[in-house]
Design goal:
binds adenosine-5'-triphosphate; binds ligand L45E5XJ5; globular; 9 helices; Cytidylate kinase
């Protein structure tokens, strides 16, 4: 079974994806880490994020796990990733790796922005996980605070809105709800509630 999970920044995609992967014993790929990884290498090498040819070359040789995850989680990396993710040639360069991961025997869980629309259009289960920008900002602010990185809630909200805007309006594989996806609005749900709702959707799909 392939479970495709999409949604905007900090909506809880990764949290749900990990729980579902553990529940069903499936491998999990956080595709956002690929774009974060490409952006990290660009920044480390002093390359401008807007240079599509350079970003494509980095993406073609990028290997998941080659950059310490801690260096990809930082606040500025989400923004940088969304800049390189808007380059069509970067998306093409990362396509095969994602499709290969999804085609493992038994299936897989992937989360990102274009999983149900581009990477796994035939996935048995497609979930679009969302929440209001205010709720997402509050969750992210709490996450940073718990890592000892206190941030302004207003700043996080501005960043989330900017990232939503860029991810939803780029020309290549924008963030949209796949026509056959089930939307899970998690604004008023805790993590256990989201997992229960997702399992109900999966059970209903048979
Ligand atoms: N239903 C929920 N209720 C409360 N907090 C949640 C819920 N789901 C996720 N969280 C928390 O919100 C934060 C963001 O969740 P998560 O990292 O799963 O989002 P994401 O959509 O994968 O983010 P990104 O787009 O940046 O990869 C985390 O700190 C997580 O623990
Ligand atoms: N399938 C995907 C996954 C991610 N992106 C871009 O990467 C940015 C970071 O992703 P996170 O999930 O780690 O927040 C995101 O804002 C997107 O721009 C993507 O385009 N497609």
């Amino acid at each position: 079974m392939i479970i495709a999970i999409d949604g905007p920044a900090a909506s809880g995609k990764g949290t749900l994806a990990k729980r579902l992967a553990a529940h069903f014993g499936l491998p999990y790929l956080d595709t956002g880490m690929l774009y974060r990884g490409v952006a990290r290498v660009m920044l480390d090498d002093g390359l401008p994020l807007g240079d599509e040819a350079a970003a494509e070359a980095v993406a073609q040789s990028f290997r998941p796990g080659s950059v310490d995850e801690e260096r990809l989680r930082g606040r500025e990396m989400g923004e940088a990733a969304s800049v390189v993710a808007a380059h069509p040639r970067v998306r093409t360069a990362l396509l095969a790796l994602q499709k290969t991961f999804a085609s493992q025997p038994g299936g897989a869980v992937l989360d990102g922005r274009d999983i149900g629309t581009v990477i796994c259009p035939d996935a048995e289960v497609k979930l679009f996980v969302t929440a209001t920008p205010e709720v997402r900002a509050a969750r992210r602010a709490q996450e940073f605070a718990s890592r000892g990185e206190p941030v302004s809630l207003d700043d996080i909200l501005v960043e989330i809105r900017q990232r939503d805007e860029r991810d939803s309006h780029r020309s290549s594989a924008p963030l949209v709800v796949a026509s056959d996806a089930v939307v899970l609005d998690t604004s008023a749900l805790d993590i256990a509630g989201v997992v229960t709702a997702a399992l109900a959707v999966i059970a209903a799909r048979g």
